[in-house]
Amino acid sequence: MKLIQWPVLAALLVLAGCNAGRSAMSGAEQVGAGLGDAVTAPLEDFNLRRQLIPTVLLQAEANPYDLRNLNQCTTIGAEVARLDEALGPDTDEPPRQDGSYRSEQAADAAAKATLDAIRGTTTDFIPGRSWVRRLSGAEQHSRHVQSAIQAGRMRRAFLKGIGMQRNCAPPAAPSWFRPRR
């Protein structure tokens, strides 16, 4: 099984490099930029490297329904923007039209697949990986990260609901909401 993975990785690297040249970062550049993280993925399993949790998500986890200092549409919108920065776009946002060609999207997908394969290969050598993650505390930290992300999503939805109630325009409300005059 391992012997098959290396030729597949090589093919994916070649495909990632076949780009139309128009995007900001080619597939090969994406692989190069993410290679360090993919190769050092086992450090996360041993809890020697941790994913940082943005402060806005920790605050959301502590109190997702906090309305202190959020009495204006602009402050609600600013808080939603902070959450968008940490979480990425909300599900009510239309997909961004970045003007990329299908070949660029294919190169991006190939680069992502390549990095996932490298990450998988580097973590496969750890015997009893699930036990290592539990004993090192990496599994607990991973659950904490997921909990903070969930709390951030919940807070963003709550704030957009409050924005609708207060007749705020997006981003303090969902993108489809039109305030009454």
Percent of sequence in beta strands: under 5%
Note the main sheet. none
SSE-based structural type: mainly alpha
Count of individual helical segments: 8
Give the end-to-end Cα distance, rounded to a whole number of Å: 64 Å
User: What is the mean predicted local confidence, pLDDT?
Assistant: 76
Radius of gyration: 21 Å
* Uncertain runs: 6-23
The helicity comes to: 55-70%
Describe this structure as you would to a colleague.
With 181 residues, the chain is mainly alpha-helical. Helices cover 64% and strands 0% of the residues. The protein contains eight helices and no strands. The N and C termini lie far apart (64 Å).
Name the descriptors.
181 residues, mainly alpha, 8 helices, flat
What is this structure's SSE topology?
Blueprint: H1 2-17, H2 27-39, H3 41-45, H4 55-62, H5 73-87, H6 102-124, H7 129-136, H8 138-165
